[in-house]
Amino acid sequence: MRLRTSLTAAMITAGVLATPAWAAPFSFTTGNADGRLGALSRSESPGKVETETADDFILTETTVINGATITGLINAPLANITNVEVEVYHVFPLDSVNPPSGRVLSRANSPADVEIDAATRDGSEGTLSFSASSLNANFSVGNTVVNGINPTPSTTGGEGSVSGEEVQITITFTKPILLPAGHYFFRPDVLLTGGDFLYLSASTPVAPDLQAWIRNSHLAPDWVRIGTDVIGGGAAAPKFNMTFSLGGNTIPEAGISGEPSCHGDSVSALARQFGGVYAAASTLGFSSVDALQDTFQEFCNP
User: Fold this and answer.
1) pLDDT band at 253 (very low <50, low <70, confident <90, very high)
2) How far apart are CA 225 and CA 211, in angstroms?
3) pTM of the predicted model as reported, rounded to 2 decimal places
């Protein structure tokens, strides 16, 4: 409680002395679905194993992410989407056993073995809300990856074309995600009753953008590259981005996680950018000042 009180007092004091110096909105998008691929991204349910599809993004500064969109293909009514979960991963070898198991061709530039716990958000736990809308009632993809997710030899060529309803799911993080600058993978899981969500591909990655990876609970903690390892084709193997966007605010000059000065530096940065604790909480999408304080204390004291 003393830490929370001291943070409030410090931010109010700093807010009185400072006026907002800048606004730094953050946005990231891979663009629109290109119709090349649908890859399963599904939460575990009775008779169905969890299957995770992840694609990367880069943050150049400490950033609060308060919203996202994902685009996919479903074979059931919109109302059958019952939950969404989001995880964020570092890039291997962080948060991973290294050297890896050797069951897959490569783990270079893959997601880590395990997610960043502090960045996990789940609709069933109230840390995100979501809504779904239809983009195209009859959308086709040229190839799919649903079941053929295997250790080496992993090449299947994919599982063929399919059609369904193209949908966009808009996600609001009721507990925004706070991350330092770095390279990450974004992984959404969608739960449907009587159907599945196929995460749709976007434009081809261009370095330093990385290709999308996939795994199911049988393959975990390893991942395989959707294009290079699963669909295959040697040097001509396709590479895929997935269709998603992220939005929020950067926090220039925020403290460095784990450093003794993190608390003070973050307080000063928030005060300079937003003019005080209440304005910061509102602009960044936190439900309360307490929620903002808790998130930054967790960030500074991992």
Assistant:
1) confident
2) 7
3) 0.92
